[in-house]
Specification:
- The structure holds 3 protein chains of 3 kinds.
- Chain A contains 15 helices and no strands.
- Chain A is an all-alpha fold.
- Chain A folds into 2 domains: 36-80; 92-298, MetI-like fold, CATH 1.10.3720.10.
- In chain B, 45% of the residues lie in helices and 13% in strands.
- Chain B has 20 helices and 9 strands.
- In chain B, strands 1, 2, 3, 4, 5, 6, 7, 8 and 9 form a 9-stranded mixed sheet that branches.
- The radius of gyration of chain B is 22 Å and the shape is globular.
- Residues 1-47 of chain B have low confidence and may be disordered.
- In chain C, 67% of the residues lie in helices and 0% in strands.
- The longest helix of chain C is centred in the N-terminal third of the chain and has 33 residues, at 83-115.
- The radius of gyration of chain C is 24 Å and the shape is globular.
- Classes of the chains: A mainly alpha, B alpha/beta, C mainly alpha.
């Protein structure tokens, strides 16, 4: 993730500045004046994000009689929560959510483990051809269009008995591998070599070095990898729809899309179901946001 | 998205509307029933002697109907076969997996036609049910790809589509149901002159609606659709070129007539979609609407009191040309790799008993394609009975064109640009390219 | 699969100056193999192998099921005379270029603004990040309603004739709708990367410039832009690659229409699955893969010339 421009050189920055970037917002203590014009401009611009969201939320709270009339921007009246109950029931949301959550959990856990170890091994052995070429081999996959693989993959997963959520989790994990090894490798470059050396001198074996020194260091990057892997896995439609053979085991996006034809006349119910599918991602993101930013930041700054 | 490997109801070629008349409750029941029946342990829990039959049927409007009125009675009536109902898995994916269903009861469209052409289905000609199918309906199966294997698929339910009209508006303005193109034009003019009435409501934002209505009806009313496509297929790699069979020569008058009818459409047709059409018609100010029985159900839900009727679109001044657009809405087939073909045959016998099949079709605004079926009772579709009885019906022209040619999108381009020449040129070129590639 | 590249995509190859271990080993510790091989082996089985099989089918007339014959280069030859496929390439590449420009301009501007001394900084950042977490399908459904119903109705009531019909129903404007919605979803990802880059620029550079009398524009031109060049290139590559694969948003918004004006390459490829035309579209997909890789390599060369390590 290091971006060095030759001229002018990006000056090295103290790492802790980056770590605390989020605290610099909101509660700045130094005495320079706030840029109020810019603040107002940004608030106005944020409407571009908030209006569609407002529209989605209010639509989900409307009755069928009110939904689909007018511009859709009016406040719900009367306000109803029954759309959520109905959408929950219709999509069998509870079961689908559990399956989606399980797939996402396996994807996220597996990715953090596999990608960080592979990146560590590659970074430590960059002088060896096997590792260097493995790295490029894994990167190339970022460019394979999914349709090329889709059909043989359906067939293969069926042959090995993985036409189920486990198979989807494995594929999500592997499709995320290239990008995340890339992220981890960039981060590992910013880890001072002295740190590794001192650990080595202390007699830490490689595995211990990884678990006790490197993996904890990777914490912000793990959070970044986790949130992006979660978003991708949770929102993915294509893979589960193709791979999972038993309709009982489908994930939220697929269940939702299959019912979309039913809902689309009833905007209020379909929007309620969108909101329910969206809720975990928004919550997860708001929680993980600070680590994501610091993870990206640390990756971006040459340590 | 859904359209990818599955779901004929979503594809632009899907003759059926992307949604339907099913109440959400009945869909829900279907899913719950599926959940209860299709669990991995279902087979064991019913005792070792019952064979589990995996039955695929995904027409959304009738998933619940099949569970409650067809599958449940069958399962309780005997112990040898236990039918489980799958409504969601992709048919193509299950074929790719080489783990097909035991019996499929689904829309027979161009995609299903490739199943026949690629020889992945079982020939059903020896089943007693095959003998009862009306021969002219059975023929429809062979029209998409290969005529010699037409008995791979047994027609079960035929939906007929024409012009849906508001009888109250027709009566109020003294308009008779038109049987010739001149009368059709006169009717349009009459309604055009009435303030606040739309003569023909069109939903051009949804390409499939242009294809199934305006295009298929006009073509079916003017030419022998099956004959044209048989010639086109027979022309092989020459099809679509000048000097051979092509769209330009045959379809130019059809396109001209389509464009004439556009003049009677609502002014906002370009940004209206299928649902808007149903809503608008239900409000009562639309005289005519080119949709099938699936829309009748939706309209009925929105306004049960509206006197909705149907007539076949007259596109020429010859009364004998009047014909209905039909669609093998449900047809039965057994994939070649099915685990239990004999049990599937038993279930087919049950499904095709008149008290099951005719009742199903009566309940769902459809025609029963058997030689001894009684006429339909529902007055909302009865206007098409005569055409069906006399064999004046056709499968939509658009349904003959493989999905790899985006006919619906081309039609949308046509109605927006009104450039008929370009449309026909594109169709010819695409057809020829496909023919050269697949038949060379 | 996804329309946009995962956002935090600034990334780097451990280049030759990577942390070379001090242990200049002659012997490879087996534990490193144990760490690397699971990833490589699983990857080969589940991704590479199916990809090779898929590529093989592009030389057949396979429908995805049933029988097939080997037909050599027929599919490839046919692609080059297929105006619809060429049209899809033209649209997709043009759409990607415009979207990449728009996304980068907006993301950079927003990142700079959100990095300035403003009130409500944390809250505003969260708001602008939000579109990133919503799935493309849902975004498309929501905007489809806004474009087709809300905007025309609003325009009618205030008498703006030009906007009173949906831009998605206009053959020459629908692409704009697709660009806007894709941009809406893609900006946060690029913005995170720019923010990270901006945080790496120490404040004292700007302070020194201020003391020298450089105005805001001058500071942007002389300090911010040159320092951000590397990030711009990275965002461009990742964004471009993502937009070339555009699928969900287009399907939900226009389904390729009106006419075929917004038919993307990915959509064209997927039509092969339902039409028995699988092998032909596989050939298309293989070509698409090659084009994507070539375009990315070209961009990588640009990076190298700029002296940025990736």
């Amino acid at each position: 993730m290091t971006a060095q421009t030759s001229t002018p050189q990006i000056p090295p920055v103290a790492r802790d500045t980056a770590k605390k970037w989020w605290r610099r917002g909101g509660n700045d203590l130094d005495d320079t004046k706030y840029n109020w014009t810019l603040t107002i401009v940004l608030i106005v611009l944020s409407l571009a994000v908030l209006v569609p969201l407002y529209f989605t939320v209010t639509m989900a709270l409307k009755t069928s009689a009110q939904a689909g009339t007018g511009t859709g921007l009016a406040l719900p009246s009367p306000l109803t929560l029954s759309n959520f109950a109905e959408a929950w029931e219709l999509t069998n949301f509870g079961r689908a959510a559990l399956i989606s959550a399980a797939i996402s959990a396996v994807t996220v856990g597996g990715l953090i483990l596999l990608a960080s170890m592979a990146a560590f091994a590659i970074a430590q052995n960059w002088d060896r051809k096997l590792f260097r070429y493995s790295y490029f081999y894994l990167l190339a996959a970022m460019f394979i269009p999914f349709p090329v693989i889709a059909l043989p993959q359906i067939k293969f997963m069926s042959i090995v008995g993985l036409s189920n959520p486990v198979g989807v989790a494995i594929l999500h994990l592997l499709f995320g591998l290239s990008f995340n090894i890339l992220l981890y490798s960039a981060f590992l470059r910013s880890v001072p070599t002295e740190l590794m050396e001192s650990a080595q001198i202390d007699g830490a074996r490689t595995m211990q070095l990884f678990w006790r020194v490197v993996f904890p260091l990777l914490a912000p990057m793990n959070a970044t990898v986790a949130i992006f892997a979660f978003l991708q896995s949770w929102n993915d439609f294509m893979m589960p729809s193709l791979i999972i053979a038993n309709p009982q085991w489908q994930t939220i996006p697929v269940v939702q899309a299959l019912f979309q034809s039913q809902f689309s006349a009833n905007y209020n119910i379909s929007f309620a179901s969108y909101l329910m599918a969206m809720a975990p991602t928004v919550v997860a993101y708001l929680f993980a946001q600070r680590w994501v930013m610091s993870g990206v930041t640390q990756g971006a700054i040459k340590g | 998205m859904v359209a990818m490997l599955s779901s004929p109801r979503q594809g632009p070629q899907g003759v059926r509307a992307p949604t339907g008349v099913l109440s959400r409750r009945s869909f829900l029941r279907g899913v719950v029933a599926t959940a209860a029946l299709a669990g991995p342990l279902a087979a064991c829990s019913r005792g070792s002697e019952a064979t589990t039959l995996r039955f695929y049927q995904s027409k959304p409007e009738v998933v619940g109907y099949f569970d409650d009125n067809i599958i449940a009675p069958f399962n309780t009536s005997q112990d040898a076969i236990h039918v489980t109902h799958d409504a969601t898995t992709s048919l193509v994916a299950s074929l790719v997996r080489q783990d097909p269903h035991d019996l499929v009861c689904n829309n027979y469209d161009n995609m299903a036609g490739t199943f026949v052409a690629r020889d992945v289905l079982t020939d059903l000609k020896d089943l007693p049910a095959a003998a009862r199918v009306q021969p002219d309906v059975q023929e429809l199966v062979g029209q998409y790809a290969t005529a010699d294997r037409a008995t791979d698929v047994l027609p079960y339910s035929v939906t007929a589509a024409g012009v849906i009209y508001n009888e109250a508006l027709f009566d109020e303005h003294g308009v008779q149901v038109p049987t010739t193109w001149s009368q059709m034009q006169a009717a349009c003019e009459t309604f055009q002159a009435v303030d606040g009435v739309t003569p023909i409501y069109m939903t051009l934002r949804d390409p499939w609606t242009i294809q199934q209505g305006l295009f298929d009806y006009t073509a079916g009313g003017m030419i022998d659709v099956a004959g044209f496509f048989a010639d086109l297929q027979a022309a092989g790699p020459d099809g679509g070129t000048a000097g051979s069979v092509n769209f330009r020569d045959t379809f130019a008058p059809i396109v001209a007539r389509m464009l004439q009818m556009l003049d009677y459409a609502n002014s906002d047709a370009a940004s209206r979609a299928y649902f808007d059409g149903n809503t608008a018609f239900a409000e009562g100010d639309v005289a005519m609407y080119f949709q099938g029985p699936w829309a009748i159900g939706e309209i009925f839900n929105a306004n049960p009191d509206l006197p909705t009727r149907t007539f076949p679109l007259p596109a020429t001044d010859v009364v004998e040309d009047l014909a209905a657009r039909v669609n093998l809405d449900l047809a039965l087939w057994i994939p070649a790799g099915a685990a239990h073909p004999e049990e599937a045959a038993t279930f087919i016998e049950y499904l095709t008993q008149p008290e099951v099949q005719v009742t199903y079709n009566d309940d769902n605004l459809a025609f029963t394609p058997t030689v001894d079926a009684p006429p339909v009772q529902d007055e909302r579709i009865a206007g098409l009975q005569a055409a069906i009885d006399e064999g004046r019906f056709y499968q939509g022209a658009g349904t003959y064109i493989p999905n790899s040619i985006p006919t619906g999108n081309y039609l949308q381009e046509l109605v927006l640009s009104r450039n008929g020449d370009q449309f026909l040129e594109t169709l010819d070129a695409d057809w020829n390219r496909l023919a050269q590639r697949t038949q060379a | 699969m996804s329309v946009t590249a995962p956002p935090a995509a600034v990334s780097a190859t451990p280049a030759d100056d990577a942390p070379s271990s001090p242990r200049a080993r002659a012997r490879l510790e087996p534990v490193y193999l144990a760490m690397l091989l699971p990833a490589v082996v699983l990857f080969t089985i589940f991704i590479t192998f199916p990809a090779v099989v898929g590529m093989f089918y592009s030389f057949t007339n396979y429908a995805g099921y049933g029988t097939w014959d080997f037909i050599g280069l027929v599919n490839y030859r046919a692609i080059f005379s297929d105006p619809r496929i060429l049209g899809a390439y033209t649209f997709t590449i043009g759409f990607s270029l415009v979207t990449v420009l728009l996304v980068n301009a907006i993301a950079l501007a927003l990142a700079i603004a959100l990095n300035a001394k403003i009130k409500l900084k944390a809250g505003l950042r969260s708001v602008f990040f939000l579109p990133m977490v919503i799935s493309g399908i849902v975004i498309a459904y929501v905007f489809s309603y806004l474009f087709n119903t809300t905007i025309p109705l609003l325009a009618q009531s205030i008498g703006i004739e030009a906007l009173s019909t949906s831009i998605l129903a206009n053959e020459s404007l629908a692409w704009l709708g697709v660009v806007l919605v894709t941009t809406w979803q893609a900006v946060p990802g690029a913005m995170i990367i720019y923010l990270a880059g901006l945080l790496a620029i120490p404040d004292d550079i700007y302070e020194a410039a201020s003391v020298d009398g450089a105005g805001a524009w001058r500071q942007f031109r002389s300090i911010t832009l040159p320092l951000m060049a590397g990030y711009v290139v990275i965002n461009t590559i990742l964004g471009f690659k993502g937009f070339l694969n555009a699928y969900d948003i287009i399907v939900g918004l226009t389904n390729g229409g009106p006419g075929t004006s917004t038919f993307s390459i990915a959509m064209t490829i997927f039509t092969g699955f339902t039409s028995g035309d699988y092998a032909y579209q596989m050939a298309n997909a293989v070509l698409f893969f090659i084009i994507t890789v070539v375009l990315s390599l070209v961009q990588l060369q640009v990076i190298k010339r700029r002296g940025v390590t990736l």
